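Marked as duplicate of an earlier ticket. Keeping the data here for the record.
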Amino acid sequence: MMTRTNPERGMSLIEVLVATAVLALAIVIALVVYDASRQSFKKGENATEQQEAVRIAFDKVSSDVRTLGLNFNPDGDATRPDEQLEAALDHAIILRADFDKDDPAANTTPETALAGGAFNVVSTGNDEIVGYVLSKPDGTGPDTITFKADVGDSPRDGAVETVTVNNVVLNPTAPPYTLYRISLNNNTALCCGGNFIVRTPVVENVSNVTFTYTGATATFKDASANISEAAADKAARDALTRVNVQLIGMTRDPDMNYKDPTEASTAPDYHYRKFTLEGDVTPRNLRMKGIQDLNSDVVPPTKPATPSLVAGHCGGFLVSWAANPSADGVTQYRVNYGTTSGAPDGSHATSGSPFFLDGLTTGTLYYISIQAQDAAGNLSVVSNQVSATVSNLNTPSAPTGLTVTNNQAYAVRASWTPVTTNTANTPAGDPAAPLIRDLAGYRLYRGNTNAVTATAGFLLVDETKVHAPAEPPHVDSPVIACHTYYYTVTAVDTCGVQSAAAAVASGQTADPGVNPSAPTNVQAFFLGAGQAQVTWNAVTTDVNSNAIAIDQYDVYRSDPIQKNADPLTASWGTTPVGSPFATTFIDNGVPALKSNELVYYRVVAHDSCINYSDPSSPAAAQCSFSGTVSITSPNDNDVVAGVVPVTVVVTGGTDTYTGVTITYVHSVAGLTRTYTSAVAGTSWTDTGWLSTPPGNYIITATVTNAAGCTSTALVHLQVGSVVGCCLDLFPTSATAAVCAGAPAGCKEVTYKIGNSRCLTKVSVTAMTIGWTDYSGNKPRWQTAKFDGTAIAAVGAWVAPTPTGNPEVGTASKNDFSSPGPIVPYLNPTTTTNATNVTYVFTQSTKKNVNFTDAFTQTYTFTLLDSLDQPSNITTSCTFRTLTAQ
């Protein structure tokens, strides 16, 4: 008997789908677990890397700050002009210490490159002047620190130079940053900016670094990045006892699931995890210096002989005097000068007589005296004073030997024999006459034929660019390749007196074999029947971005083409319709066009070799616009800051122009401002552009005529964040601070200031006031007032007890609320609209009119925008010393 069994079968469709879904779910869960593990590992890697880097950097900063001042002045020389702490800023520090004390090759000797001269012992070299600053990751920054130090001569000469540290960030609001350790170069020939600053990166991905400086009674910081060298500020830096260092690092990558509770959601580091290290550092050597050896030479040289002055050279005197006795051991002399008897404005060091004292103002009376200094640094009493008026009796001799040679692509080298003499043996009292002592430089003239002359129309560069003795030679660049130029040159003294011209010389560059870039911003407009105007921007680079000059442009016109046709299908002739040297061309041969036709134009640039550019993009002539649109201010490639008026004009046209639109496009932030004027005219000025943020901009102006046709112009600008002083004393001839009433009222002294330059309001962020109490009344600082209103409460100022005889006091405030006290923009400044600044003291600051107290003042400001909000544009002002009257 046979039986039937059910046949074997596979999984049903439903079972397959269920199994697939279970498998997919398992894979998803595995991937989620893997991704979570990967992200967790990445976070841990980021955090570990961040913390380790910040710890190492913090230890390095703290170690250097802890050494601050070590062996700074081992011989106790009272005349040494340098400081232990050179700059005390919120987000930067510059200090000095003997960092190589443990180097067996250097720990027993001074810095050989910089020792001697004015000082017996110098144990800190330029490379031991160390700073910590922030910069952007690419090493750039909008800010600059300047300070003064005796670093420009080897051996040191006792005279300070201004050191400039560029590319730093002093307002760190857009991290990440890189923390750099900077020092100065022992090669004094590089002084005092650029390659003189040695930069070493310490740590990347820094959110912020902050330094807080504390003295015995209060905190201190420098009011601005232009470090004040006023006695009160130097004393305040010298009196500090502790530095708090805070370093905040951030992860290399953001964590989008993390939100920093201390940051706004719009902050650039909102999704970055931070790691902060902070600590107080007490530099034990601050305020310490060596004690002078009691057996050392402390006897100053004898009083120098009365000097004699020889006038006749522009901007200076030849100063002569009899040398001190050899027993005095004089190593150098100081030539003191000033416009007020008994009150020198400055001094120069020299090894002996005679000395040419330059840098003076021709036509001004000066008072000159001499002091002698020996090897121990002892300084003699001042010689008898003499006076004379600076004059100019000379004309420089004409340069000779002018030659012009090919230097490199797009450049020629003009060289000539340097001028060393004047045309006559004057002044008679100068034993080296006709030696020229007042040469400012040279004026180089260029033309396209040998008819070039030393006249304004041919001037290429003047003495502000062609300095003596650095030049000759002078490289003229960029020039048109293969184009022959003709040159002549004159010598000019510091009064602007010009010599006769050198013989004409000619030269040209070789063929670079590189094509120019194609012209841009080509526009075409009908001027009338059969006539069109074509304009474009000048070509300034080749295809490799090298700066070039262009000889000529070829303009091509297409055959008529249907308006709706693709411009790429246009037919072009092989012969240009014009070859102008300028960036505009009028085509008088436009063919008659049907209503549905148009013509295109394109432009080709070339040099004299001949290297041709690619054709520009085609531009159609479809409407009528006469005249040329240009941005007359600022100029293309200008560097600007603050409120920058932008002026647009139309020249050579007959249309009615109904208005203008100006756009401001930042290279990173994009469109930052649009200005529109519907006022008809030929000139418009936007006075409201506060040029922020810093960086590169393209400004485009578009003018519209009554027919609705538009024409454009553009310029490229580089915007900075620091402007010059906005303020002036009022009136500018004022030399006194006026007592606010009767003799008792001299507890308050007032002067006027006006803001007539910054085109917008400015807000005070910091103030430093200094005073010298010649009256002997011992006034103590209370506060300052703007137009009668106290700008800070009594006690809110940092005002250490004055010291010295006469007493020198100082008061400062670096934390005004935002915005702080405001000085409005008013031009012109008048008696009624000027801001009255009043200093309030506890005692009278003036005893009598013959013996008056003196005041110094430094302000730091932020420019305000149209909504009275602080910008990132700053300025500082240091006014001349005022006396109480």
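See parent ticket for discussion. The helical segments are 13-66, 231-238.
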